[in-house]
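OP here, attaching both records as promised.
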Amino acid sequence: MKILIADDSEEKIKDLKSFFEELGCEYQIEVTCSFKETVRVLLKNEFDFVLLDMTMPRSSNTSRTTKKKRSLAGKDVVSTLGFNNKTNIKFVIFSRFGEFGRLDEVKSLDEIYSEMVEEHEQIFLGCINYDTSDDESWKSQLLKIIKTDILSD
């Protein structure tokens, strides 16, 4: 299984890598930390499964002292790939926040879930709230998705 973790949080990346180690299946993990890097990597490579943070920096340019965040980056990654006819990769939104927005438009994770199901039902597998106070919840949700939608293919 080839997995991409698209996230700029070292804590989440570490927790996800540990999760897959505990799972005990054959896997290869690659990590991207920004919207632009994630799109570039996904357009050039094949993955079985992608865990997308909803809010990521626009680019990985380390020369900037403040990185501008793209608040709906995860949703935008999936839309960009669809626009480029790259629609064979399975996605999960994996975020610690419950609301996201641009300017005056704020959406809940539930609203984003509904939009993603409607727009990308063949490749979108769900939203998982990463809650560090409840590791078992996000782990059980992720395990269910992997068993049902990834390993069964």
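Record two, same layout:
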Amino acid sequence: MAKPATVIVIWLAATLALPSFGWLAIAVAAGGIALARPKVLARWWKQVRRARWLLLTLWIILAFGTPGEALLPVPWTPTDAGVDLAGLHVLRLVLLLGFLALLFDLLDQNRLVAGLWAVASPLRHLGVGLDRGVVRLALVFDYLEHAPPRGTWRHFLDFDGEGIPGPDTIRLERLAWSPRDVVLILAALAMLGLLGALP
């Protein structure tokens, strides 16, 4: 299995490359995730369900707000360019949720924190304190993965600092970079470049 830092670097590269993906690239990437790791699909679907209102809102804004020819000869209809752009952006976000589901499937919380710490460790030379920031970021990821039950926001109004969910300790596993990690990252970058070049 790849080291946590390698997985996170590849995930970051995929996330940054995502805006360049067209329809075919999105289909290939989504199919690749489904074939390589079928058990991710349930987690991916769960995240898409949670984001459904955001995705719908984005689609409506882009479909109706993008200039172009009216899709139907009736008032208040979306434009053809708007529907195309809205569909593309929504599918990119759905694929981003797939990347996130894959990240959570490959790394448990301890490995995620270790990977974040390793990737961010060069910032130590600039005087940036990493420990608290990395743990907070890992807790944000954990919150995204395990959303609280409905109505939990009301408890924040009466918050007394007791009973905060989350792990008591986090173990960091420090692993050195190896040539295999570099090869994996370069191969992933080449694959992302090919996907970005697809229509």
